[in-house]
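Schema walkthrough. Field components (list of strings):
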Amino acid sequence: MTTTGAPPPPPSRAIELAVRTVTPVALLVAAFLFFSGHNQPGGGFAAGLVIGAVMGLRMIAGMPFPRNPGLFLAAGAVVVGLTAVAPLLWGDPFFDQVVLEWDVPILGKVKTGSAAVFDLGVVLIVVGLVVAVLDGLGADDLADRVDAGTAR
Amino acid sequence: MIWILLGLHVLVVAALALPGLALGRRALLVAAVAPAATTTWALSRLSADEPATASVAWVDRLDLELAFRVDDLAILMTLLVSGIGTLIFVYAYGYFSPTAAATARFTTTLLSFSTAMLGLVWSDSVWTLFLFWELTSITSFLLVGHKDVDPAVRAAARRALLITVGGGLALLGGLVVLVDATGASRLSEMGPVTGTSATVAAVLVLAGAATKSAQVPFHMWLPGAMAAPTPVSAYLHSATMVKAGVLLVALAGPILSDADGWRTLGLVLGLASMLWGAIGALRHVDGKLILAWGTISQLGFMIALLSIGDAKATFAGISVLLAHAVFKAALFMVIGEVDVRTGTRRIDELNGLARSMPIAFAVAVASGASMAGVPPLLGFAAKEAAIEAVIKLDGADPWIIGGLIVLGSTLTVAYTVRLLLGVFGSGDGPATEIAPLRPAMAGPSAILGVLSVAGFVFIGAANRLAIDAAAGLDPDAAAFQLYRWPGLTTAFMISAGIVAVGGGLGWRLAGPRAPVPEPVAADLVDRIVDGTILGARKLTGRVQHGSLPVYMATMAITAALATLPFIGAVDPDAVYLWDSPAQGALAVLIVGAAAATTMVDTRLAAALGLGAVGIGVSGLFAVQGAPDLVLTQLLVETVVVVGFVVGLGHLTRRFPSSGTQWRVIRLSVATLAALGTVVGLVAATSAPAGEPPLQALIDESVDVGGGNNVVNVILTDMRALDTLGEVVVLAIVAVGILALAAASSNRRQQEAT
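Field assembly_structure (string):
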């Protein structure tokens, strides 16, 4: 499979455990960055990078991860495209924004809008890009071992 | 009604395109319903006083609209497009064998063409006209290339497409100029124009017309297009599509006839094509090619008449257009029938068909005589009107234009006689064996053959069509008419002379002749296309050599060379050391890490060095108070580290050693890139374009986007279109990477097996 270098070392238990612990935390961080982006540093691009990094870590640890970047890319492209053209259906200009604001118990005043949907598309595309790059860099043999059930 | 008829066409096309509808060639009969309905409507409109109109706006402010206006000329054209079209569909039913492949595709394409052609002749808005003009080019390309397994057919179709679409571009340019000069986008609202812009429009419009109507020097696509099935040739290449150019000249005549160059250029194009086409028709032995070259000649005749700008000549041009559509479609049909029933259409191989194919013979004689201008036929009346018009012109025109038209007509008689003798005459050898009669083929051609006669017998009907149509272009044309028997006028004497001389010439030239090679020009188009493709392939091989270092160097050098010229914009006073000493410390870190990266010899160390550079840069952002950038930069660094960990396992631990020479080159490129970057940055900060509208941005961010993070509101709201573009670029990059990875993994698998 590989043309140069030594065969990749077997994934270590310690790394696997660490990645297993980090995954939910990182996803939470990504969600936080996504929602805080409206008023604080963060946003879709940052959230996408965090998720992408987690995917990379799982790749290294030989753990399962969504192996279809094309799906992310397609979904993201559809979401951003639809947010762009949807206002036209109501006779509003291209990319017109809708801001929603309502009171939610515990959280208080929540403000969101179509910009968040657009940002979600950005997240999906960034995740797709990162996974595609890492996959292209040669994670295939790591993943092959996962598929073959020999990862542990 | 216009919408209903167009809708009916589209509906039938859609219905016939349904998968699983295995009608075979019977689909052609179903398709004939749409043109038949249109013909009926057109006949009912003959006595209408007001043109039928319909329009729907698309972009008001750009005057973009679908606008139709069916006046008398359009009715005449409709009768050709739909009337002959109906016959063609029936004829095609006979032409194809019951087991013929791809008849569904053929039927839907042919009906699509029919639709486009109707849209074209009904158009009032020039933009509508252009749209349908291009649609006819595309459907014609598909129809010519129907037998797509044959490379020669594909080449012919491509040639036809390139020439007609190229002419379409010229036409678009001409229409833009025309709309600009007249201030109207509807043909019916355009007044006459003069001056430079009118001349430009005239040249461009004539170029468009000349490509569509296969006029010299753009004629080479038409003989090649004879590779199409014969129903297509009979329909597109005689009665309809090639007439679009003539129609365009007719429609633009009233607007552009005063423009310098319009008359001269139109006459030169038309007369040159009339003569060159007739000569071409005399040189070929393939019956279909003879007709194709004859079509070039006849179209030239019409364009010449319509360019003269004289009411009687315009009337004669329209009459020839009507007569030609009837007789040429019939002749194509006959040749197709001969081809199907004998297996050949070469005049030197056919023998004795006059006896074995009496119906076809009768149709061919009637239509051929009409083409040659022999009484008592429609073509005779039309040609009489033309000669009558030309000899009444002023000055030297009767001698020059008239002389050339007489010469062209003589040659026309000659090739007609040669064709008829060649196909139907009896020679020495045994009579050609023939397959049984196909009524669906003989019927439509017989109807058209009878029409050539009927148009003369009931000349009032033909007159009404031609006079009304011509009067729409030039009101004075209403004073003229076609005559059954003009009396012993000068024109009649000339006609008699033409027939006598041409007939004798044709008699002499009949019989087997050595086939002549295709004219150079046909090759030329193909060679230009092939050369372009070959050149592109060579250039790609040269540019896309696959060496990553050279790609990188090319990009870096190009970027540096692009920014270095701005060195003149650098203002030395704008350069200062730092905003805060922390930047100095960070700069030391960044430069040190970068320098270390170039010196270490293991890949992992270099990756770490690059990470340090990135973190240093994010520190600079932090000092400047840009937390968004810091966050993004740090996250990118993180992902890059993960990427290195994934990728480094596949590479050697150390960098391969490279020679000193290579190091020097890399050092120079790096220095150049650094200089370029510095110059670009300093030049940009030297000339600030006013204070940045900070407060305005913040206000708008809260107001419009409802968020306090200005950067993100700009990204997702105020400048969402830019972001859309960027994420699309990201997605394309990702798809490219996926494709590359898939390709290399395929290659590895192939090598492994």
